[in-house]
Structure formats: C-alpha cells, structure tokens
C-alpha cells in the first residue's frame, strides 16, 4: 500500500498553478485531494447565502476535473480540526499539505490541526498561494511592517521579479494523484442551504479589454469597467500569479490594485486586532452615534442620497457593489450618519459575494479615517459631488432607484453640511484629548 499525502483545498479551488498542490505532488507521495465544508463557518451564514452555492458549484467542477485525471476529490462536512486528524489515522497519512490563510480564525484553526497532527507523527505544511508577497516578505529596513500603502507598493515592486509570477507546473506531477473511487458531493439541502440561485456569478475569464482601459472606466458605475474577478480571487478559482502577470503587461493602474490586496492581507496578519479595533488607537475613543431608523434607511437604500441608495440596492440584490460607490457608501455611513464603521463592515461581510476580511476591514477603516491610510480624518465624500462626477447622467442611479425624481423618492435623511461639521467637530475632540 503506497504512502499517502493529503492536499486540503481551502481558498484555492483549482488544480492549475496551485502552490500547495504542486508541493504535495512533488513530495513523492501519492496525493489525495480533499475539501471540507466547514461547519464552524457555515453555522453563522444565512440559509440562502449565495457564496455557499458558488462554492458548491465550484467544488462540483473541481471534482469533475479530478475525475478527468483519473483521481477523485474527497468531500466532507464538519469541523476540520476533527476531520483531518481522523483521516490521517484512518489512512496512515504521512503529510498534509495546504495553502496558507492569514485570517485570525483560520490561523487558530490551522494551529489546532498542526498540534493534533504533530502528536500523531504527521507533517503539516502550508504554502503561499493566495498572495504574491506575504507576512514579513515586504517590510521596512528595520523589519517593521509598512503602515502606508505608497512606500509599501514601491518596495513591493522593487522586490518583484519573474520568479514570483511563475506558475507552479502542477501538470508535470499529476500522475502522483491517488487513483480512487468517486465520492458523492453532498447536496446543498444536506448541508442545510437553499439550492436556489438568486444572484449572478461573474465569469472567471480574465477580461483583457477591461484591464486595458481600466484607469479610464473604473470609476464610472454605469459602465462595465471593472473586471469583477474579486470573487474568484477570494476563493482561488483563478491564480493571483496569472492575473498579476497579465496585469503587469497590460495596465499599471490595475496592477497597483492587486498590490492593495497584498497590502491589506499583510496588515491583517500583523494587526489582527483591527477586526474589532481601529488601527490608529486614538480613534478608538470616538463615541459613535446610532439611530435604528437611519441605519435601516442606509441598509434599504432609502437615504435620499441617490448614489448611496443605488449602491445599497445593487448590493442587496446582486451581492456586488461598484468600488467607487463602496467608498461613497462607507464614507456616508461613518461620516454623515456617524455610525460605527464595524456595523457597516459587518453588513458588507454578510452581503458581498466577494467578501474578504482583510480588504473589507481595510476599506471600512479607510472610509472612517481610522486605518492605515495616510489621508487625514477630514476627508469626507460629498455624495452629490460624487454623483455629478461619476454618474452625471444618472444612468447607474436610475437602474437601481427607479423612483428617483418622483414624489416617491425620500428626502435626505441627514443634511450634508451639518453632518460634515458634526463629524469634524467630534473627530477634533477625540484628537485634542490625545
């Protein structure tokens, strides 16, 4: 009986250019791929969560891809910290491979798995696959992490060479996959989720024409000017190396956006407290207000600010919101309503198909002025000015707010000038007390 290794798919739901799978296959052991529907994560999700349906469809495709190679994907539902050690003991597994995840709960989970496997004499190895540079790979000369994006980006680009964008040639070692019988994929119903698809999942194909003109189209929500690949980067259905390599050849502006992704992953790794706390600790003393009616008006897209309302309605219906509009919506929440950024961050986390903790927390703290951004707290978007610049013909707004311009559309729930002055005054109080 040949010795086995496991490759544990997580946020890397593909076979090609997969760092951890490549290293498993090259180890000399026969490799069995597995995926676990993590009950610890699923327990907190709505039964209609479309991301679970996306993952389920993706796993079905991945399973078929393994079958075409004469192998199989073992699929489980439960707690990975229990399932992995059980599998290791049952099948006398010598090594478990995976790709690293940098979120605090994932690190805690992986530490538990590592400890359990060490006790029973099984190796556990992680690889870098989700980002181009991770952890301490891009730091200042004194070894401390960067807190500002621009110098981080400069150092990132200085360190980049062809090696970091090379694909992992999984195909060379594909013969080392463990030939095995087909394993049934549990249905969504069996997992406790709805099988009804209510939202569109963007294509995983890299749209070259959009990348080529990205800097000219990216800010206009009525235009199909963004790649919509974020859900695929989130779940690893495409390779970040492949996308970065194409972006580097095609459009620097788009390429820089991919560096932002690495930046926020690095910040989360070094500062996991930012999930609950402001990066700049002095801003943690801000006494946010809360009004249930105002909060609900924001959630429902009925604030009386049409660009904000269009964005929220797009999010609620599709699981997507244009990036320019995300900034306006988040700024409005924190600095017009003066509500705690964490409430908005959690709402996005629940609704966004492409939700990724590092970028979501980073983006919301950027909007609130309490994160790593170098800009001062008094950057406050005027939703009306933003609409005039980026949706001057109201095309995006009319698509999502059909009653705009009629008596059915609500009056603004807060007055811009007053809200801006209130926010500035509150921030000044906190900083003066420093």
TrEMBL record:
EC number(s) in its UniProt entry? 4.1.99.3
What residues bind FAD, as annotated? 214, 226-230, 254, 257-264
Q: Which organism is it from?
A: Fluviicola taffensis (strain DSM 16823 / NCIMB 13979 / RW262)
Instruction: Note the superkingdom of the native organism.
Output: Bacteria
The processes (GO biological process) annotated in the record are: nucleobase-containing compound metabolic process; response to light stimulus; response to stress
GO terms of molecular function: deoxyribodipyrimidine photo-lyase activity; DNA binding; FAD binding
Photolyase/cryptochrome alpha/beta domain: from which residue to which, for each copy?
A: 3-132
Q: Which SUPFAM superfamilies match?
A: Cryptochrome/photolyase FAD-binding domain (SSF48173), Cryptochrome/photolyase, N-terminal domain (SSF52425)
Q: What class of enzyme is it?
A: lyase
Protein known as: Deoxyribodipyrimidine photo-lyase
Which protein family is named in the record?
Answer: Belongs to the DNA photolyase family.
Q: One Pfam family of this protein, by short name?
A: DNA_photolyase
Cofactor, how bound (note): Binds 1 FAD per subunit.
Q: Hey, where's the site called Electron transfer via tryptophanyl radical on this chain?
A: 288, 341, 364
Q: Which UniProt keywords apply?
A: Chromophore, FAD, Flavoprotein, Lyase
Q: Which cofactor names does the annotation list?
A: (6R)-5,10-methylene-5,6,7,8-tetrahydrofolate; FAD
């Amino acid at each position: 009986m040949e010795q086995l290794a496991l490759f544990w798919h997580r946020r890397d739901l593909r076979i090609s250019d997969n760092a951890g799978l490549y290293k498993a296959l090259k180890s000399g052991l026969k490799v069995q791929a597995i995926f676990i529907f993590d009950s610890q994560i699923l327990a907190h999700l709505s039964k209609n969560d479309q991301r679970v349906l996306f993952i389920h469809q993706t796993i079905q495709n991945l399973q078929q891809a393994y079958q075409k190679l004469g192998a199989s994907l073992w699929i489980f539902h439960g707690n990975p910290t229990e399932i992995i050690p059980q599998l290791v003991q049952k099948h006398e597994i010598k090594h478990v491979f995976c790709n690293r995840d940098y979120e605090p709960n994932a690190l805690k989970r992986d530490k538990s798995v590592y400890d359990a496997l060490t006790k029973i004499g099984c190796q556990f190895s992680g690889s870098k696959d989700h980002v181009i540079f991770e952890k301490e790979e891009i730091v200042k000369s004194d070894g401390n992490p960067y807190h500002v994006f621009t110098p981080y980006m400069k150092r990132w680009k200085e360190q980049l060479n062809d090696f970091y964008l090379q694909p992992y040639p999984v195909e060379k070692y594909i013969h080392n996959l463990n030939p095995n019988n087909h394993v049934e994929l549990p249905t969504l119903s069996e997992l406790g989720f709805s099988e009804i698809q209510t939202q569109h999942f963007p294509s995983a194909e890299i749209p070259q024409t959009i990348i080529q003109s990205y800097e000219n189209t990216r800010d206009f929500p009525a235009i199909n000017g963004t790649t919509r690949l974020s859900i695929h980067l989130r779940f690893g259905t495409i390779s970040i190396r492949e996308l970065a390599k194409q972006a580097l050849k095609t459009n620097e502006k788009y390429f820089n956006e991919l560096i932002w992704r690495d930046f926020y992953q690095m910040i989360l790794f070094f500062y996991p407290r930012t999930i609950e706390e402001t990066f700049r600790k002095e801003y943690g003393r801000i006494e946010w207000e809360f009004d249930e009616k105002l909060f609900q008006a924001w959630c429902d897209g009925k604030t009386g600010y049409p660009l904000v309302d269009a964005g929220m309605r797009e999010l609620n219906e599709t699981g997507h919101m244009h990036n320019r509009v995300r900034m306006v919506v988040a700024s409005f929440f924190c600095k017009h309503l003066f509500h705690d950024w964490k409430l908005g961050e959690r709402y996005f986390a629940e609704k966004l198909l492409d939700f990724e903790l590092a970028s979501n927390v980073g983006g919301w703290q950027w909007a609130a002025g309490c994160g790593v951004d170098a800009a001062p707290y008094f950057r406050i978007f005027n939703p009306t000015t933003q609409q005039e610049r980026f949706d001057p013909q109201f095309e995006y707004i009319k698509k999502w707010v059909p009653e705009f311009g009629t008596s059915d559309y609500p009056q603004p729930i807060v007055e811009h000038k007053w809200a801006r002055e209130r926010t500035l005054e509150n921030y000044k109080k906190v900083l003066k007390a420093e």
